[in-house]
Amino acid sequence: MEASSEQSDRDQETKNLRVVEFFSGVGGLHCAVKACGVPCTVVAAVEINTVANAVYQHNFPEVDLMQRNLEGFTVDDFASFDADMFVMSPPCQPFTRVGLKGDKNDARTNAFFNIMRNLAEMAKKPTYLLVENVKGFDTSETRNFLVETLQKCNYVFQEFLLSPMNIGIPNQRVRYFMLAKQRPLQFKEEHGTQLVQHRVNMPLMPNEIKETSRLVCDNSMVSSQEQTNMELTESRERTGQDESSMVSLNEQSIERKTDEQHLNEKERTDNVKSGSCEDMVSSSEQNEQETGEDDERRKIGDYLQADLSEESMAEYLIPDRILLKYVNVMDIVTVEDTKTCCFTKAYAYYVEGTGSVLRTDLSADMSSAFSSGSCSDDERLERLKALRLRYFSPREVANLHHFPQDFGFPDCSTKKQKYRLLGNSLNVTLLAQLISYMVA
Asked: Where are the residues of the annotated region Disordered (predicted)?
């Protein structure tokens, strides 16, 4: 059996794998497939969102992109792809903890269940399968059905909770990953069916990839506070809360955090060089989640747009009214930091828990800006404006997700659409390495 497995591995290495991408979004998984170092071709993609499809088609015009509801696909539809690999990132809302958490009873899981049911009926199944979702999917009934299907279909599989932070990328974005391949193929590293966090030695900048040289497993997880912040954003948008209700929520948060507390947190963050997400992740959790030494992680400055003019930068400066009211709930980082908080699809439109903001003037007096001493709103605003706080541009968010530099948006895409689409996306380099590991 071992010799047969080795022969199968060699056969796969020489074959150009046919990949089909489900719930394809803007094509993050497509970018990962292209970057994985394994001969692969995305032959088809399926997505129902018209805005996402416009971006996908802009970047990958050669792909057969289907704007169809996967609930209506039959076993013949899936078989017609003649695919070696299925990759997918199903809707995550049914698995968030602050939402309704409908799990398998949420209608948004119907398409995924249809894929799994038809997979079981296919005479020729794809050799490889990859599923990405939020933390929370790992404890769901939907995940249990996925596992049952894979076992019934004679797949071996491994599951992971991973963040780009674990591989030196300065962005915290914990996600669940399922890797599966058909027997007699086996994984190079074995951990059974235990869900683990998987650290991989990888390149740290976009457009680079290399073979895994070391695999280390541990059991660290994302903090409940950070996950809650990410899920609150999804819940607010799903329930249709308008901006006024968001403002009310943020004002309550500000009342619970004084200026002095905010300054103390910033000082503590600087002391431990934790990357400025102190009120989201405890220092002990950070030690578990990150790569260890600061020199193993890239700095935020490596991901900024070098060609961003002063005029363009002004477009991303925090507006005065937002700055004065909500600065105490912002996660402020600098070019020297090695961590940003998860960018959600509400970034730059909702304030709390949607992603970090960048302090661009390091010469300004931070202590003065956050002093608890009495001063007028005008005086305080001027001190805060001196910090020149701004949002990360969509291109910079894409850089932190390791999208290639030639990835772009159609001219008709609005800034809000770009943030929303990137907030729903994934880290390309992390996925590329997982695909490479799965096929190895």
From this structure: 222-299
